[in-house]
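EI: anyone free to look at a 140-residue chain?
SC: sure, send it
EI:
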Amino acid sequence: MTETIETLFDTGLERYKAGEPISDLIPVFQEVCDRAPKSSPAWTCLAWLYLLDNKATLATKAAQKAVKLNPQDPQARVNLAVAMLETKQKGLREHVEFAQQLIFVNEEWREEIKASIQDGLTRKPDWQSLQKVSNWLFES
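SC: here you go
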């Protein structure tokens, strides 16, 4: 019996929170994205995992899909900005500024983004691109 997409997604998130290796989780979220190609949260998670695994080019593509599917998702915007910074692309300011606006009007999103950034810096302490985006978002 195959797992439902929701179960696969939720199980993948639990495994991530439990500290499973990123390389074991990427195939889980790739499968979710393959089975539910219009799921912005799945693409957002996949982009994040790629970033943690130093696969910025793949992260950029996944984050672009996430933003296209849900332009109002601040995490998707943050992921895209970090990926663009890591691949030395131009145009990331618009994504940072949009994410800033989103987290300014929604305190819950603000706290989620702060927690996500803290999680990223815990898992990858010398993550300069994430630190730079964090500074842009929260130092103003």
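EI: The chain has a mean pLDDT of 95.
SC: 👍
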